[in-house]
Amino acid sequence: MKTVFLLIMVLVAGDHSNVMGDHVKHSKKTPHTTTQIIQQKGYRAETHTVITEDGYILTLDRISANKEGISGKQPVFLLHGVFDTSYVWINNIDTSLAFLLSDENFDVWMGNSRGNPYSNTHLKYSPLSPQYWNFSFHEMGVYDLPACIDYILNVTNASDTIYYVGHSQGGSVFYVYASTFPEMAVKKFKIAVTLAPAVFLGHANELTRLSSTLLTGNKWLLNPSRVTHINLSNMYQFVTRDCDDSPLATPFCKTLIEVNAGFDGMSFNHCLGTHLSMFR
């Protein structure tokens, strides 16, 4: 598991001198964080901090009341996919799942997995150290998810169970949790919805298969000591600056994304670059 996860991190490793969170704070343009977008749309936003058993400090974003000021009752936890943040749940603005759930009087909580721009600190390790990055989605399911769920249920005290929605890696994380703690999963989750969960790899595309074949056995490249930083901001800048601002580049960028994510022109969000402007 860790080998495959480290492979992905190697492919997007960036400048070691720049910490992800610093880019969010010091962007040349006004940063639009999850909390800021929630507040701009007229919802009540909160930010909470959770510390996992193995020392990772995670940020939870919460929509505690809708535009009418009505507080949500039933808690629901949304967890993003790989290389993403809680921002994914509010980046379609009015049609975003987080806002739709809040409008239906849910108490909406959004997680940020270890290593993303909102959860890139640790009690002991710096995100520039190899020790910090020695994890995979397995640790997210064993440590991150239990810590977040227990915290939410303790804070809300409104229900003994919680709804769960996970996208891609967020689905994988849930299945790790459920298979590791089956009794707790039955007790604490009322229902779990996994969107495009990455569980079985039998239908992976050819690019993924080729990359895995070429690099999985490369112990030197996949050594955790060589993975010291993932610069997500570079990836988002490419999408926003080069794809969104250039009509000529848009078809190329669309194809590049579909090669990795699958071809579905009818469902492709052509405003993706604009919605990712928080990292510009």
From TrEMBL:
Secretion signal span: 1-21
Keywords on record: Glycoprotein, Hydrolase, Lipid degradation, Lipid metabolism, Signal
Partial AB-hydrolase lipase domain residues: 34-92
InterPro entries with a match to the protein in the record: AB_hydrolase_fold, AB_hydrolase_lipase
Single GO MF annotation: hydrolase activity
GO terms, biological process: lipid catabolic process
Family affiliation: Belongs to the AB hydrolase superfamily. Lipase family.
Protein's recorded name: Lysosomal acid lipase/cholesteryl ester hydrolase-like
Native species: Agrilus planipennis (Emerald ash borer)
Lineage: Eukaryota, Metazoa, Ecdysozoa, Arthropoda, Hexapoda
Gene that this polypeptide is encoded by: LOC112904735
